[in-house]
Amino acid sequence: MENLGTFDVFDRLSGVNQQPQPNLTGRPLMSHEEAVIKTVSLGAAHEGHVELLVTLRFPTGGESVICLDPISSTRLMDLAGAQQMEDLIGCGWTLVRDAISAAHQATDSLNPRPDL
Fold first, then answer.
1. Which of 24, 31, 54, 115 is the most exposed place for a label (fewest CB within 10 A)?
2. Where are the beta strands (DSSP E) in the chain?
C-alpha cells in the first residue's frame, strides 16, 4: 500500500492535479465540495482527559480546528472505521458532525434534564 503524506491525501481526495482515483480505503466517500479532515493530533483537556484535535480543510482553502472530547473521538473512529487516528485523514466533515451529535445524544440519555 502506498504511504501518502497529509497533503498528498488531501490533493488526491480533492482532485487537485490528479486524475480520479478509486477508493481503496473502505472509508465513506465524500463530495469534493465538502470539508475533509486534513490533520489529526492529540491535545490536553481538563482533568487529564485527552482531546482529539481535528483540522478541517474546506474547498475554499480555509481551515478550522475542532476539539473532540473522548466520547466524540471514539464515535468518530467507529463511524470512519479507523484503527488509528491517522486513518481519519481524508474523511468528510459529516463524520465529525455525526460523531459529535451521537456523543451528545448518548450523554443526554445518561443525564436527562429535569423539566423546568
1. 115
2. 36-44, 50-57, 63-68
In a structure prediction context, what are the per-residue pLDDT tens digits for the chain, which is 116 residues long? 444 444 444 444 444 444 444 445 555 555 557 899 999 999 988 888 889 999 999 999 999 999 999 999 999 999 999 999 999 999 999 999 999 999 888 766 655 555 54
With 0-12 / 13-18 / 19 or more C-beta atoms within 10 angstroms meaning exposed / middle / buried, residue 98 is middle
- 45 Cβ neighbours under 8 A, 6+ residues apart: 51, 67, 69
pTM equals 0.65
